[in-house]
Design goal:
Length: about 230
Amino acid sequence: MKGKLIVIEAGDGSGKETQSKRLYERLIDEGYNARIIRFPNYGSDSSALVRMYLRGDFGSRPDDVNAYASSVFFAVDRFASFKTDWKGFYEGGGIILADRYTTSNMVHQAAKIEDDAERRRFLEWLYDLEFVKLGLPVPDCVILLDMPAEYAQRLIKDRSNKITGQEEKDIHEKDGTYLEKVYRTTKSLAEKYGWHRIACIKDGEIRSIEDIHEDVYKIVKNLLKSK
């Protein structure tokens, strides 16, 4: 009996790692069998092309690599993680909490495509690639932490690069115009696909970690009650 795949999606600096960890700890305390997975999986050889892309080896701007090519880099990393790490746990009934997933390919790469018809074709191609051709599980629930790009950019300003550990940002993080496009695309796709949206800003201020966690927890508990 397969388990549940719960995805927490958001832009860089929006609190995905913090919220994933907080949710995991609470579910474990309540006796659930849960695991966290994170993408990209920087500790694996499978992320080599992702690291090269984000480091700027193929071009200094996100648009220097088209949406299809970039998506393959990230999809292969997910495939390797699934096959070598969490497939058995998930298929045995475990709860997987994913900090990013195919949804990140959807928002980051679709943001490179302006034409609506071409974007639709890309999204259909991506679904077929990851969920059909590569056989990755389809999420049971996607939770979007809605943090406007202007706030997220402040939060990542002094954060070290996850690839190098240095201050220099990857090609996504240092391109403010691109991050704004990604944010707009994220909101559009969240509405299109019915993702759960949690507003991270209230009255012009970032909500507390605990307040956001409570909203995340309610969504997940409702999902688990329906098992």
